[in-house]
Write a structure and sequence with these properties.
Elements (H helix, E strand, L loop, with lengths): L7 E6 L5 E6 L2 E2 H4 L5 H4 L1 E5 L10 H20 L3 E4 L3 E3 L17 E2 L5 H6 L6 H10 L4 H6 L2 E10 L9 E4 L9 E9 L2 E10 L10 E3 L7 E9 H5 L8 E3 L14 E10 L2
Parallel strand pairs: 3-12
Antiparallel strand pairs: 1-2, 4-13, 5-15, 6-15, 7-11, 8-13, 8-15, 9-12, 9-14, 10-11
């Protein structure tokens, strides 16, 4: 039996734009790992050792490390092609280059069912961001449209203090029904015009209805892998979202240790 960790506050956005904070008993992700089925829950933790990393160098992240993530994405998903997005470094204002890259403390899942139509259509605003990535990867909109399945994975890594002030909580996707989500359009993000839809999570109807997990004191050689869209699951009516958010660490020792983390996303294409 999993014993909840100390309660924390998880913030939710209501459809009318208000924020609600709910005390939440987090489950120990490490203890739960043997029972977590990725297809159902949407997340897992793996060890992933990187030689001579430089987590503060955007050139290293978006050159060398993107190659690491492409290989990992293909190994993990068994996809035929993986297009890796530029990394997003999150942390305090002194570290990040845009306020959008501060830790997000509202429960959300990155993309809605509009993701597939968006990446299939070169006339959408998102093409200004995606087209250069496709060209760099030797891919194209024709290639994406030919794919039988589209999957988006996020690779989340703690790159700073082991016991940080704003760590990540992640919810078992099977515990968050579609009716608990509402969509919003993100017109601009990080200074780019993207016009993509994201899911925000409504407050739970009953306490702890959503099963939130936390992997305490993540090491730099660990990576949290989670799904943010899957066309195959969408087609079969299963959860293709994985809600997540930052929360205030209740451990007093964490208060002076600012979170630093790296997010890498991979658009995975399947030919069959």
């Amino acid at each position: 039996m999993l014993h909840p960790l100390a309660p924390v506050q998880i913030h939710y956005a209501t459809p009318n734009g208000a924020l609600e904070s709910h005390p939440t008993a987090l489950l120990d992700g490490r203890a739960a790992l043997p029972t977590l089925e990725f297809a159902a829950t949407g997340f897992t933790l793996q060890r992933n050792i990187i030689s001579n990393p430089d987590w503060t160098d955007p050139n290293w992240i978006n050159d060398t490390h993107r190659c690491h993530i492409r290989k990992l994405a293909m190994q993990f998903s068994h996809c035929d092609e993986a297009i890796v997005y530029p990394g997003i470094v999150r942390g305090p204002k002194s570290l990040v280059d845009h306020d959008d890259h501060l830790p997000i403390q509202v429960a959300h899942s990155d993309f809605t069912d509009d993701y597939r139509p968006m990446v299939l259509n070169p006339s959408r605003a998102y093409a200004k961001f995606l087209s250069p990535l496709l060209a760099e990867a030797g891919s194209s909109y024709t290639r994406i449209n030919a794919a039988k399945r589209i999957l988006v994975l996020q690779f989340w890594r703690n790159t700073g203090a082991i016991n940080a002030d704003l760590p990540l909580a992640i919810a078992d996707a099977s515990s968050v029904p579609y009716s608990a989500l509402h969509r919003e359009t993100v017109a601009q993000y990080g200074g780019d015009t993207l016009e993509f839809e994201t899911f925000l999570v409504k407050p739970p109807a009953t306490p702890n209805a959503y099963r939130w997990h936390h992997f305490a004191k993540m090491q730099h050689d660990e990576v949290l892998i989670f799904r943010t869209y899957d066309s195959q699951l969408e087609e079969t009516g299963q959860p293709y979202w994985t809600p997540h958010c930052a929360f205030v660490n209740p451990d007093p020792e964490a208060s002076g240790q600012a979170r630093q983390s790296l997010e890498m996303r991979a658009l995975c294409l399947f030919d069959r």
